[in-house]
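User: Here's a chain of 239 residues. Predict its fold as tokens.
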Amino acid sequence: MSEYSVLHRANTRGSQDHGWLKVNHTFSFANYYNPNRMHFGVLRVLNDDSIAGGKGFGTHPHDNMEIITIPLEGALAHKDNMGNGTIIRKGDIQVMSAGTGITHSEFNSNEDHAVKVLQIWLFPNKKNVTPRYDQLSLQNIKVKNEFYQILSPNQNDQGVWIHQNSWFSMAEFDTHKEVNYRLNLTSNGIYIFVIEGQISVGKESLEKRDGFGIWNTENINISALKGTKILLMEVPMSV
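Assistant: Prediction complete.
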């Protein structure tokens, strides 16, 4: 089995500064278009957002997309047309299956400092499902120096679930920690996003906000070169 990979350095992302919103796009989105960066398998959007105090996204629609939000700093207020009105904070994960259609808004719930958040979109494996929303605190499932699952296709598994054969894991590794990740489905690929720190994967060294996609493999080895926080997304490669 010949392994393939793609590397996206942090400083090669599409950057937009809207004043109240500063965003880095790993993949083509809004005003950023790069034909070589449309998606990684079913992973369509990976936005690294910073939203100014009191600002946010007004009510807008989505359909037929699995949307995952992971706050890295601060808190985000969410409202939708299903009657949900919640605050998602650092240490939480939120998921929406947009399905037949959903409208929602997202605003920084603090007036005096920015909220930093990852917004991730995946193509679903079922279209026109009934829209749904879920939110979970990760504080009770996080562990040190190993991957812990935060998302899967299975309702009864640890973490939230989505309509796609995808598994997301997070990890916080001490310096020099080495771990192996084995794929749930060997037909899937892995996209690693370094939130903080520095790691090596094979011959590649990755630093803060770098992204690295690998496919056609059964497992990968990761070494933390210094204290590191990672988001690992295992996703189908066929859209």
